[in-house]
Design a protein that fits this description.
Strand content: 5-15%
Helix content: 40-55%
Order of helices and strands: HEHEHEHEHHEEH
CATH topology: Rossmann fold
CATH superfamily: Alpha/Beta hydrolase fold, catalytic domain
Number of strands: 6
Mean pLDDT: 86
Strand order of the largest sheet: 2-1-3-4-5-6
Largest sheet: 6 strands, parallel
Number of helices: 7
């Protein structure tokens, strides 16, 4: 079953990427122009900044200043990553003089939400792509969860992390930051797909945020043309709100 899911995800990714290459939105056509503000990208579980190159280039093309998280491989202690990327967010906000927008894929969106909770004065908004923000590991599909947990357990074997490190049960308090209500100073938007083969789409919904549904599978959300159109609108709306404020 897992092999079948992997093959489906691979072909969907190629299809979505090809669609993006043919779609005018991939070249910034029909998308509101950005205001030059900083946007930080956070990759998903077991991925790194290399996975978000297409999205980073697109953001630069439409008028924003993209930043990468510094994560080469997103495994290990999420609390430590929240601290490290949080420091990066604070530095970007300080140097740019603007609050930072965070876009995170899967686990990256979970981390982005926690960073906003711990750094509300530095984060303007968080956009999560296929991120299980409600249920942690239980938001991952049953047929996928054992394999992902095995990767996390393998990492923990070679680390000095405490028991349950990398889970929402860890005593570090990561769950409090992730599952807390969205900070009043930071907007939250979720983009999800009901066909998501990795996480249960219901776990991506934030009742207090803004939620958008697209088609396609989990991994391809980072190259999905529909996602790019929605991102353009979300970023433009945030800019308008900032002007109005």
């Amino acid at each position: 079953m897992l092999l079948q899911l992997t093959a489906s995800a691979y072909f969907d990714f190629l299809q979505q990427f090809a669609s993006l290459a043919r779609d005018p939105v991939g070249y910034g056509v029909g998308v509101p122009r950005g205001d030059g503000r900083p946007v930080l990208l956070i990759p998903g579980f077991t991925a790194g900044d290399w996975s978000l190159g297409t999205l980073a280039r697109w953001l630069g093309r439409i008028g924003y200043k993209p930043y990468l998280s510094g994560i080469d491989l997103n495994v290990g202690c999420p609390r430590r990553k929240v601290e490290l990327v949080g420091w990066r967010v604070e530095k970007i906000a300080r140097e740019s003089g603007q609050r930072v927008t965070i876009i995170g894929h899967s686990l990256g969106g979970v981390l982005g939400r926690a960073i906003a909770a711990t750094n509300p004065t530095s984060v303007r908004e968080v956009v999560a792509l296929g991120s299980p923000i409600r249920s942690g590991w239980m938001g991952v599909h049953d047929q996928v969860r054992p394999a992902l947990q095995a990767i996390q357990t393998f990492w923990q074997t070679f680390s000095s992390g405490p028991e349950n490190c990398g889970t929402m049960e860890c005593a570090c308090g990561i769950a409090d930051a992730v599952f807390a209500p969205s900070p009043e100073r930071s907007r939250f938007s979720a983009i999800y797909t009901r066909r998501d083969e990795v996480v249960q789409w219901q776990s991506c919904i934030d009742d207090a945020g803004t939620n958008f549904e697209v088609s396609g599978l989990h991994a391809s959300l980072i190259v999905n043309p529909a996602v790019y159109r929605i991102l353009g609108s979300i970023l433009a709306d945030a800019a308008a709100d900032n002007v109005a404020a």
